[in-house]
Amino acid sequence: MSGRTFITTPIYYVNDVPHIGHAYTTVTADALARWHRLVGDDVFFLTGTDEHGLKISRAAEAKGVTAQAHVDEVAARYQQVWELLDISHDRFIRTTDADHQVAVQTFLQKAYDNGHIYKAAYEGWYCVACEAYYDEGELLPNPDGGAGLDPIHERPVEWFEEENWFFRLSAFEQPLLDWYEANPDAVQPAGKRNEALGLIRGGLRDISISRTSIDWGVPVPWDEGHVFYVWYDALINYATAVGYGSDPERFATWWPHVRHLIGKDILRFHCVYWPAMLLAAGEEPPANINVHGYLMVGGEKMSKTRLNQIFPADLVAEFGVDGYRYHFLRDTAFGPDGDFSYEAMIARYNSDLANNLGNLLSRVATVVGKKCGGVGPAPRADSPLAAVAAEVVREVSEAWAAVQPAAALEATWRLIREANALLEATEPWKAEPGPEVDGVLGDALEVLRIVAVLASPALTRAPREIWGRIGLDGAPTDGSLASTTGWGGYPGGLAVEKGDPLFPRLTAAS
Ligand code: ME8
Hints:
Layout: E1 4-13, H1 20-38, E2 42-50, H2 54-63, H3 67-84, E3 91-94, H4 98-113, E4 117-127, E5 132-134, E6 158-167, H5 173-182, E7 187-188, H6 190-201, E8 207-208, E9 210-211, E10 227-228, H7 230-235, H8 237-240, H9 248-254, E11 258-263, H10 267-280, E12 288-292, E13 295-297, E14 300-301, H11 312-331, E15 338-340, H12 342-371, E16 375-376, H13 384-401, H14 405-426, H15 435-454, H16 462-469, H17 481-485, E17 494-495
Parallel strand pairs: 1-2, 1-11, 2-3, 7-12, 11-12, 13-15
Antiparallel strand pairs: 4-5, 4-6, 6-8, 9-10, 13-14, 16-17
């Protein structure tokens, strides 16, 4: 069934350069977008950068450059990394984009006109790294004795006093609970939905949405001298990108059918504040929010201060783009925390890509060369692999619908292993040429064809290569999924090319 799919990643802060944690969300969203394109959906895939706020202006100051020069430089770094990883976004939004400023002002003016925004004095503990106020009780003790530490970055908070505009979040407790009740699957997984419900049931306090202490932000339209607080500006990017404030018709076609992919660190903003803000502006909350855990390194969250960040380019140099994408999609289940391990990455690459997939292709091509004169035979209609393939296609579809790339790839690789097992059981390389050998090789070629289609959301390069080597024209993503994954699509009679190993085996670098 095809439809409209709007997929988003968080927009990342430009105080940092992208590491494998940022890339985890982005690669997952990209693979999901590719899957939806494959099933024929009209897809809009959005990523970008979050460029306003105190954290960014301080980072620029520390470097001795203007805020604009700083954000331009770091936004470009993000764009380069996404290019390196074959990310297929339809727009890279920057909160400094002109249409975004208009969208933010339109959106919040609406909430103001609806009576949900008021002015009051505010003082409290502020964490610049989180761009958030904390209650005393939420802070961690500071071993050096000063102000408490924020629970996320474990850095000392600062005391802020300002006159702020406030969003009447407290008025949205019941509307939010009603929305969660009416949309039981909107926030996934269920544990994260419960966490959001817990925050709402625990009581919501009004929140400050403007700052006077800085000018690096979107001006409050009804009060000169105030800029919107960075999170308010940031969340609205999802609306800007589909026409809010510029093209109401376009906005109406996409909203609220969005799927936000986020890490658990920003659950409160997306699962509590954002739906409430939308209700305040007279819009519907987002249809889907999928929350994943942290990718840890050596059991700890990656951070600049721990010096344990790992950068995508270093891994791509060794594993290639497909090796990179495959590892994170296959080995880090979407939802729980996961631990990055270089050894596990090598092991996964060698077993699944070099051995299972790479060997199937090279084996089949070699034997077709020797026993069939290099011309690939057609598969058998009554092949024992036909039923396996049908089941795998169903499982893969279900896995992507549930945003579980690891399960989709696991199912796909089961089909590869079954094809290798059939070859090992029948040993066509030892048999005399004839219908028996042709049948087995035709079946294996058909598996390669179907796998090239099913793996194409995750692997952006190898599927196309396989497609060409088994003699097919075009690309595995050309046809509709239903037409390309049915058993019997490989026509036979095509020249099969051996070529170099698709995934040369790797040994751990010392
Ligand atoms: O929070 N493991 O930006 P940010 C998994 N600008 N995912 C990780 C990760 C890790 N170790 N580290 C980062 C912001 N991420 C705001 C968002 S959205 C309107 C504004 C990913 O640069 C994960 O998706 O701190 C997380 O939610 C996001 O990067 C935080 O990125």
